[in-house]
Amino acid sequence: KEVMLDDLPPRIALASLDSIEIVEIDKIIQFQAEGNYTKVFLLNGKSVLVSRSIKEYEELVSLSLFFRCHKSHLINFNHIKRVDKHKNFVVMVDDSVAFISRRKKAEFYAMMESFLKM
C-alpha cells in the first residue's frame, strides 16, 4: 500500500546547531523559551535547543493541543501530569514544570475543562 502524506502524523523540523530533527508534533511535551532560543522537551526524554523563538513555534503547532500558559512556556495538553492550582504551575509527564501566568490563568482552566470533556 502506498503511504499518503495525509496518513502521516503532523511533523515539525527542529533545527539545532548540529542537526535538524524531524519529530511528530504529538511527541512534543513542551516548548520553553530561553532568550532567542527555544528548548523543546520530547517524549523520548531528549530535549533539543533550537534557534527559533517560542512565538514562531506557537504559530506552527496546533493551538487545540498546545497552549501558551506563560511567556516562557508552550505546553502540550496531552502531556500534563499534574496541575498545582495554588502555586499556578503544571507538571508535565517528564516532570518538567511550566508556569501559568496570572494573565492566562482563566483561559488555561477553561481550556483544561473543555480538554477533560474530550
Report what the structure shows.
The chain is of the alpha+beta class. It has helices spanning 54-60, 105-116; strands spanning 11-15, 20-24, 28-34, 37-42, 47-50, 66-70, 73-76, 80-84, 89-92, 97-99. The protein has a 5-stranded antiparallel beta sheet with strand order 5-4-3-7-6, with helices on one face. A 3-stranded antiparallel beta sheet has the order 8-9-10, with no helix packed on it. A hairpin with a 4-residue loop joins strand 1 (11-15) and strand 2.
Topology:
Elements: E1 11-15, E2 20-24, E3 28-34, E4 37-42, E5 47-50, H1 54-60, E6 66-70, E7 73-76, E8 80-84, E9 89-92, E10 97-99, H2 105-116
Antiparallel strand pairs: 1-2, 3-4, 3-7, 4-5, 6-7, 8-9, 9-10
Q: Mean pLDDT score, rounded?
A: 89
Biggest sheet, spatial arrangement of strands: 5-4-3-7-6
Rg over alpha carbons: 15 Å
| Rough outline | globular
Can you count the helices? 2
Termini Cα gap: 32 Å
In terms of per-residue confidence, which ranges show pLDDT below 50 for 5 or more consecutive residues?
none
Strand portion: 35-45%
Structural class: alpha+beta
* Share of helix, binned: 10-25%
SSE topology string: EEEEEHEEEEEH
Largest sheet: 5 strands, antiparallel
How many β strands by DSSP?
Answer: 10
